Amino acid sequence: MTEQPIQLFAKQRKIYPRRVWGRFRKLKWLTMVTLLGIYYAAPWLRWDRGPHAPDQAILIDMPARRAYFFAIELWPQEIYYLTGLLILAAVGLFFVTSLFGRVWCGYACPQTVWTDLFVWVERLVQGDRNARQKLDAGPWTLTKIRKKATTHLLWLVIGLLTGGAWVFYFNDAPTLAEHILHRDIPWSIGSWILALTGSTYLMAGFAREQVCTYMCPYARFQSAMFDKDTLIIAYNDARGEPRGKHKAGTSWEGKGHCIDCDSCVVVCPMGIDIRKGLQMECIACGLCVDACDNVMEKVGLPRGLIDYSTERKTPFRLWRPRTFWYASIMLLVGGGMLLSLLTRTPLELNVIHDRNPLFVRLSDGSIRNGYTIHILNKTHEDREYTLRVSGIEQAEMKVQGVQHLSLDALPVFADSVAQFRILVTAPAPEQARQEIRFIVSDRTGELHDSNTSIFVSERE
After folding, report:
1. For a tag on the chain, would you pick the N or C end, based on fewer CB atoms within 10 A?
2. Averaged over 26-43, what is the pLDDT?
3. pLDDT digit string (tens) for 103-115?
4. Does the residue 16 lie in any domain?
5. Is the predicted pLDDT of residue 1 greater than 60, yes or no?
6. Cα-based torsion angle of the residue sequence 286, 291, 292, 296 in order, rounded to the nearest 10 degrees
7. Cα 163 to Cα 166: distance, rounded to the nearest angstrom
8. Domain that holds residue 29
9. Looking at the domain assignment, is residue 14 inside a domain?
């Protein structure tokens, strides 16, 4: 007798979610339209920043090393704002999950949004669940070829629009759109468009729920954010069991309200049966709730056999120790970022002391130290700045290598960094290392910044 090999992996079973209508389906449509509208339209918004800056409201300008978000302009050295945003995004996701389960996955995740759009296109061309199953099971006819080709062509168009919209966030949208129309774009941009077109086509058209189950790490650790007061999709088995078919006009005595119609299963985009309890694959989209509510109305029973509920089966509580700490972290990080943005100055000074040599002793006994000064002019106008030093007596400064350049009029172009080589000479102080402070300001005195360094007179 020949032993059959053990099958460790099963072939992917294609899921054909059936169309359903209800409050959660309406919410999903509203969320999808809103998020897609923002994604595709945001690069075209304009924001006037003056004559020397781009007017695109949201732009990540890689060549200029700037990021623009309406009135906010971020420089490379302000990467900590990105760190803060990532912390807010992560903790915010934990906060929402602890309250409402995987609503991010069910409504706002890009994989969910684009998959919903692709399924809608598929349903529009090929029909609803039964029609799509029949089409896939049938032979290849001209009708099948036409419907399949139309579906995949529309998917590719959506993927192309998705990739095109993405590169607009890194380039001036109207200018790049004109280059695209004239097929005059560099390969670096074209490759991104093609890559995102292909990834959107594959992920939303074929991988779908497999991404959520096997590729996304969030599905694996989501339960760490749950507690007994988290809202989850739940089947009321006390009310629904024992389940079974029901004929109109007969008594419900001794029967559960679940008529075993499987409507909750066939509408699920993940292909699971919520009656088996909470499962890792559940993305809390609520479509099974809509399907069950529709059936309950048809058979004359109250809605809510499947609904959002907590493990405690008690009224939902917003504030709990878990949500309090998540909210506190978000307020702390968000408040710090907001305070930093409100108090940030469009002028910044950086000072680097020479490392070799640390100092030079001149013939008259005085000591000279060298510094590299960077003045960041974050405004959109060319400006001149005044540089001063404090903390050491009888100090003299000059700009090395540039004749006739006054320390009262150091020029810095708009939205740029200027570097100056500064020499500070002073009588030998009593201390081997003395703290000094460089102060830079504009001519009006409204903008100013300072930076602390040292003045070295002896080797340790």
Report:
1. N
2. 96
3. 999 999 999 999 9
4. no
5. no
6. 140
7. 5
8. 23-82+101-224
9. no
| pLDDT of 180 above 70 | yes
**Of the residues 190, 224, 258, which one is the last residue of a structural domain?**
224
Does residue 5 sit in helix, strand or coil?
A: coil
The string over 420-452, giving b where at least 16 C-beta atoms fall within 10 Å of a residue's C-beta and e elsewhere, is bebbbbbeebeeeebebebebbbeeeebbbebe
Helix then strand then coil, in percent of the chain rounded to 5, is: 45, 20, 40
The whole-number average pLDDT for the span 310-328 is: 89
The residues that bridge with 437 in the sheet, in sequence order, are: 390, 452
Are 351 and 210 members of one domain? no
Question: What CATH number should be reported for the domain holding residue 382?
Answer: 2.60.40.10
- How far apart CA 88 and CA 74 sit, in angstroms, is 17
With CA atoms as reference, report the closest residue to 162 among 186, 184, 125, 195: 195
Write down the pTM of the prediction.
0.85
Domain boundary among 224, 251, 273: 224
Contact indicator for 386, 347 with CB cutoff of 8 Å: no
Distance of CA 331 to the CA centre of its chain: 19
Query: What is the domain count for the chain?
Result: 2
The runs of H, that is alpha helices, within 169-211 are: 173-181, 187-202, 209-210
Residue 390 and residue 444 in contact, taking contact as beta carbons nearer than 8 Å: no
pLDDT in tens, 218-251: 878 877 888 889 999 999 999 999 998 888 888 8
